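If it is no trouble, can you show me the amino acids of a protein and the tokens describing how it folds?
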Amino acid sequence: KASLVVEPGTYTGNSYMTLCQALAENGVASNAFAIDTWEGDEHSGYYNNGIYEELKRAHDPMYGAFSQLLRMTFDQARPLFRSSSIDLLHIDGLHTYEAVAHDFENWKGALSDRAVVLFHDTGVHDRNFGVWQLWAEVSQLYPSFVFSHSNGLGVLLVGQSQPAELLQLANGNHSSSI
């Protein structure tokens, strides 16, 4: 069965293109979707169509066979994904507590039994970023670990069927820092 990778919040595509490259280079059978309006927000700033066009020019020739850029809001995209279907969800949209909590709750029903959720910017505590607050809550509910460099990346093991190696990194049911 092909893996399903979804990234709500893509902006210039740095993390998304890295995911696509890893999938392609490792021969992982997958379908991947980047979701964004490509209009910006209070944290990334607002921008013109050039960001989307540049990403599309780079993305489509390299990854278009298994990946799509969906230009819409996260809420508009959610019904496009079946329940229990997403294996990797990278939440990287608006970073207020309310927005990231909404995104996590809204997408939780689409997560598979092997799902991993990534949260970007778990280490940012200014500019009304609230990912760290949600991370403090959800990392107590699921096995997890965080990469603290470069603004932080939280790795939450939501699915019940996780590889032993990931569970070992998470060191049980509490959040570990790497």
